[in-house]
């Protein structure tokens, strides 16, 4: 097996982005597993893996990764929004609403504001 280098991890991260865009989330997860094993502190890789888990309907794994991202970056509006969508797909509306609202409070993105339902 070839030696893994930081450059290899960058290539795997970029390839995982492409796989996710090509609707191969499981392939993306496989590449990101090695990146995260070597660099567990890499929040960008964790966020990408969370997105891949979500796309693959591995919702518990997505929830875990989004939660780790938010522990490190509590002001990450996208991570709050994505975690809310994860909770929504798990039929956990109270948690979903909380994170939709946090996302909208952090970033007035129209999609975040619409999903926050501040009027209810």
UniProtKB/TrEMBL annotation:
Superkingdom of the organism of origin: Bacteria
InterPro entries assigned to the protein according to its UniProt record, in alphabetical order: TPR-like_helical_dom_sf (IPR011990), TPR_rpt (IPR019734)
Any Pfam family: TPR_16
Signal sequence segment: none
Chain positions of TPR repeats: 77-110
Entry keyword set: TPR repeat
Official protein name in the record: Tetratricopeptide repeat protein
